Amino acid sequence: MMKRLRIIFLLSLTLSQLFAQDLRKGFVNPPHSAKPVVWWHWTGSNITREGITKDLEWMKRTGIGGFQAFDVSLGSGQTVEKKVKYMTPEWLELFRHTAAEADRLGLDMTVVTAAGWSETGGVWVKPQEAMKKVVWSELQVKGGTSFNAALPLPPTVNGPIRNLPKGGGFGGGTAKDKTLYADQFILAFKTPEAALVSAKPTITNHKGETIAPEALLDDDLTSKIKIETPKPDQPIYLQYEYAQPFTARSFSLALGSAGFFPSTSMRPGMLQVSDDGKNFKTFHIISGAQHDIRALPIRTFSFPEVTGKFFRVVFLSGPGVTVTTVGGPDDTGGFMGPATPPKSFDIAEVIFRSVARVNRWEDKANFAPMFAFDTFQTPETGASSAINPNEMIDLTSKLKIDGTLEWQVPAGNWTILRLGYSLTGAKNGPAIGDATGLEVDKLNKEHLLSYMSQWSNPLATALGNLYGKSLKYFLVDSYEADAQNWSENIVTEFKNRRGYDPIRYLPTLSGYIVDNAEVSDRFLWDYRLTIADLLVDNHYAALTEFAHKQGIKTYGEVGGISMPIIQDALRNKGAVDIPMGEFGMTQGLGSGAEKDWTSPADLENQKAYGGANDRLNAHQADVREVASAGHIYGKKVVAAESWTGGGYEAPADLKFIGDYWSTQGINQFIFHTSAHQPLDTKPGNTMVGTHFHRNITWAEQAKPFVDYITRNQYLLQEGRFVADIAYYLGEDIPAAVPYWEKLRYEIPNGYDYDFVNTEILNRFTVENGDLVLPSGMRYKVLVLPEKMTMTLPVLEKIEALVKEGATIVGPKPEKSPGLVGYPAVDNTIAMKANEIWGVADGKFIYQNRYGKGRVFWNAPLMGIFGQMGIKKDVEYTLPHTNTRINWIHRQTADADYYFLLNMRKQTEDISINFRITGKVPELWRADKGTTEPLAYTIDNGITTVKLHLNPQESVFVVFQQTTTQNQKAVVDKSVDIVNNLSANWTLNFPEKWGAPKQVVLPQLISWTDHVDAGVQSFSGTAKYTKTIEIKKPAPNSSLILDLGTVKDIAVVSLNGIVLDTLWKAPYQIDITKAAKPGKNTLAISITNQWSNRIAADARLPKESKILASGGGGLGGTPKAKESGLIGPVVIIRKR
């Protein structure tokens, strides 16, 4: 027996060592699959065969793993005489050449699923296949008569709602666009009593001027008035005076869309009422721009009835988002600038109604995006405002082809609702005109498959055997096609998925209350859930299924950063092979990393949280969302569109931001962007930025940075993520990580988390108290959203999990959010919830045992973990008050490892505890692929190590080799400076770039501080040389050359031997082997960014400019930046 045990032990030890060797080997020499990828934009039809080959060869020698090809209308910097337009024979031939080159070079090829970057649309999409919205017309008729006439035709215009034309954004509407209208249902119902009230107000403005009422009351979103923009100290208002006291129960406001994003037009304000026109009382607040830049400035508000003779809508200063317009880039690279407050704005509709409407029905019916619907419940109203569904009559079969209706009207006042659909007018983009067409219906699988066939067939024909071989992926970029709330199949799909007929409730889509306020809100909840189901099943999953049948996989930003489409975001991301998120180079919508980048966590600490319109918080939510999707659905790769919106930043600028998002779960960077370079002119062709292509200054010095990313990504793709908390997003649609508010149960320091959705919730099992998924993920607790609603199937799943030993944290549900099973289901939910939550009330008693598990309510997670005995996964000392270490933990069969990032521009000497025992820690550095031992102690299940971290440094701490030794020491080497080399350098510049051939530097300074204007403005590579004296090093010592501050990349040579490329701090290199006693020739080639030359050229007349173009991107002309070898340069001896 002992011999057998000894053999088993030795075998397990051998296998452990093999696994350890594999992980180490992959880290030193990562596989192709770990390499980053680039977005590769073909811009404005400026494409050349030669440029394609040069671009791809540069990617190959730089270490890039592949590219994702786009054809877009935007871009600037290089123009060719002969344009090559999308999908023409010439274009397809170049696409074939691209595939052949990718195959030759071993690059993974991806193509986006439409011209532009969003989404699935093109000129071949027929109107019947395009995105649709509900439209309607109403006719009031009196009963007791025979009706035989044409019904008013609903709006047929392409646009987001009613008769509002498509506008704003890419692919706006034109007079040539085809339209489509089709009838769906003709419904007659008794007109609610409150809707029969007719009152004509006199309208004046804040100056006392009379306003003609027609434009504001005509139910026409195209007729408008102008009103001056309010100032911070000067609100403006419109006043409605009625001849008799008027009772208002709802209010509709429509402002004219201005600028690229329509929601920027919605202004904050308030509604006021008065009996005498002098003393006004505020009874409702208008919140202004909200949640998303793509929302419509059209809203209806319901409130408890208010009576008065005078009503005001008061507008306050402050639009929601400070972005005005997007146009074609100019020579200075301008693209999206800051807003200039307009002097006036348009108002299309201001209506106080006596009849209540569904509160915010435009959003609830998905004419526009919104979150947090539960905060906009419709107030209960009397029967006078509601349609009685039992008296509704379906007249659809009586409508004739010419739109006439013959009907014997029963007694009473009736409304005939002619309900149909027209097109939203959404188009793919930004694409050239010949490649721009309607977006395909996102809710109809048949239309999606038709689109994919027509789009992919020319590609498959052109590529032949390279289709599915060289071309390996389709990319679905971020969803920017706006809202859709109808498709021909939606009623049938609704019946199949929700189990009841929606027809009697369809008037809620036009704002009517059916039955009562709660029933109407519940139906619209079910309706949004159905749309979300159709989006994932009939669009994203169908697209992936189509691709798989052709031997191709899918990437997807589905739906994308701060895209509050009606979706289950995690399901969407789980439907593609490689889910993608997005992070930017900046914190706002503008450009330029001119100020230090701040992490989302720091913004919160600084009380600088920008709310729903703060893009950095949106990036945080999007990245955590996509990372969670990757973990819970078992996706090895979690990708991200990376560093969007920057300029010509250097690798060191990109590293820290990239490292941060690595700690949040991203394990494949996709550079945004490497625009196609049809020519060799400098500074190259650009598309938005950050610019990463073969014509940037540091193109040939990029590989060490790319290798660093690759090593990081290799480890972050291996194994599985380790987290303790599963945060359930709930059932409300949109189900997405909330970027517009903080999490109710804040994540305590030292623990990590994922988000889960209902689909994943139903896959949970319980093992030893852990919540376990088929993907391998395990969690200690499941946190519920702070909502009092839950469907019965979800509650039953929660009950089963708790019975089996799970720990659940969250409030006790009271009722269902939808109409399925209503009203009986609410009693069932309340009874079952009372059983599970038991004595816990969230006020005085915070937990209850049920079965083998527990539920907590209003208890902090830190306290819960204390009760459960779950120690922090990571805990560290705080040498400074602002010390912050970000981290992520991954685990393989035999190893645990942590990626750690010093978030500060300061050195940190910390003691750090890891929730690991019985394994030896090692320090792995991705920049060089080196590993080294660490001193450690193991005590009570915790391993403690001490780390010295340079400013913004990142490292891996890897636990692999098992040990029974609880302590190990590592001797630190002593360090002393033996030579200061900061004086007397010769600096040589290349010809024809505006700088003198040579300058002598008594002391090292930034080029921007030099007296010579050519040196100040230089961009590119210049060489520093100096003869230095080196003494023979002592035995067992080494010589380290420390360059101090470098802007931006240094290639170091000693005695003619190229030693290394240094691209980040600390700029240090071991010169022991290359140095010789006595005189040595030191050469350091420094490369900076294009910014200095671009900034200088912007001030020069055209004939004096050195560059071929002015760059490009979101931020316009960049500022000159510190450049060169700044030092101090010293030689350090280690022994």
UniProtKB/TrEMBL annotation:
CDD domains: A4_beta-galactosidase_middle_domain
This protein's record includes keyword DNA-binding: no
Database matches in InterPro entries: Galactose-bd-like_sf (IPR008979)
Domain of life: Bacteria
Keyword Membrane: no
UniProt keywords, alphabetically: Hydrolase, Signal
Position of the signal peptide: 1-20
An example molecular function term from Gene Ontology annotations: hydrolase activity
Family annotation (NCBIfam families): rhamnoside_JR (NF045579)
Entry protein name: Glycoside hydrolase
Lineage of the species this protein comes from: Bacteria, Pseudomonadati, Bacteroidota, Cytophagia, Cytophagales
